[in-house]
């Protein structure tokens, strides 16, 4: 069975997981973890992404990030290639160090974003490495507790918790200590039903209608049909767009296909699913 193609769109937030080849250890030394963090910092200086959280474990790492000036696939290729070269050179070895491609889970909103942040910060505790989240050195938990804006973009999430920074950190600390039973690296999308449907469209039906026919079936007038095809932003046409998007997703069209047919972006298509 072929791999499911990744869905990427501008402004998306992802929970990224990269494991070592055959789950072998890829961070045996302090220098290894520092190299990856320095590589992330180097890419951050180029304003290519926002980093909301990370944890470096022995045989894998987690990132929560939002790309801004680069595609996720290119960013991960640059980071992993650089680390792979460093790792092989430092061990005088050759070959792959990562277990195939990374996994990237799209995150719909701040509710799921906070939950994933807690989940990755609790990784060392659940692995039996330490007893408390704050006892682990190689995660972004310390950035949040110590109010360190730099590699990690802590201000965005802390400001959501409170306008008062001391109160926000207190709320963060209490939240991250709560029990989290979810396994967020075992699913494909983090969001509500409409978001999941938009990110993971159903398989193509051999008898599906073409997109223009789906659009016509919303009972648009001929004039309004032409306006939508030219990318009209008229508010009175939104309800037709919503009906069109929902039916097109059910028939297995991708976000890109649906959006291009009426002159809107994949992000705009997702927003229509939430109406």
UniProtKB/TrEMBL annotation:
The keyword Secreted does not apply. Residues 9-123 form the Transposase IS200-like domain. The keyword Metal-binding does not apply. One of its GO terms (biological process) is DNA transposition. One of its GO terms (molecular function) is transposase activity. Keywords: Membrane, Transmembrane, Transmembrane helix. InterPro entries: Transposase_17, Transposase_17_sf. Gene3D superfamilies: Transposase IS200-like. The chain crosses the membrane at residues 49-72. This is Transposase. It comes from Desulforamulus aquiferis. The lineage of its organism: Bacteria, Bacillati, Bacillota, Clostridia, Eubacteriales.
């Amino acid at each position: 069975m072929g791999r499911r193609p990744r869905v990427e769109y501008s402004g998306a937030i992802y929970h990224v997981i990269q494991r070592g080849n055959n789950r072998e250890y890829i961070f045996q030394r302090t220098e290894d973890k520092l190299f990856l963090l320095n590589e992330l910092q180097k890419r951050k200086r180029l304003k290519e992404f926002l980093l909301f959280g990370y944890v470096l474990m022995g045989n894998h790492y987690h990132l929560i990030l939002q790309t801004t000036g680069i595609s996720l696939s290119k960013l991960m290729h640059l980071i992993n290639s650089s680390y792979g070269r460093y790792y092989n050179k430092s061990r005088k070895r050759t070959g792959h160090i990562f277990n195939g491609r990374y996994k990237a889970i799209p995150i719909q909103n701040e509710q799921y974003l906070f939950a994933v942040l807690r989940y990755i910060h609790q990784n060392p505790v659940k692995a039996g490495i330490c007893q408390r989240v704050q006892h682990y050195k190689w995660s972004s938990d310390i950035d949040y507790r110590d109010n360190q804006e730099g590699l990690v973009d802590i201000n965005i999430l802390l400001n959501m918790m409170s306008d008062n920074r001391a109160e926000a950190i207190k709320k963060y600390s209490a939240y991250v200590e709560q029990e989290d039973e979810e396994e967020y690296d075992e699913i494909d999308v983090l969001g509500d039903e409409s978001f999941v449907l938009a990110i993971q469209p159903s398989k193509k039906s051999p008898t599906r209608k073409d997109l223009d026919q789906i659009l016509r079936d919303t009972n648009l007038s001929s004039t309004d049909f032409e306006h939508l095809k030219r990318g009209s932003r008229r508010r009175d046409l939104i309800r037709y767009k919503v009906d069109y998007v929902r039916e097109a997703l059910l028939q297995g069209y991708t976000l890109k296909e649906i959006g291009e047919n009426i002159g809107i972006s994949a992000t705009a298509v997702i927003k229509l699913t939430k109406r």
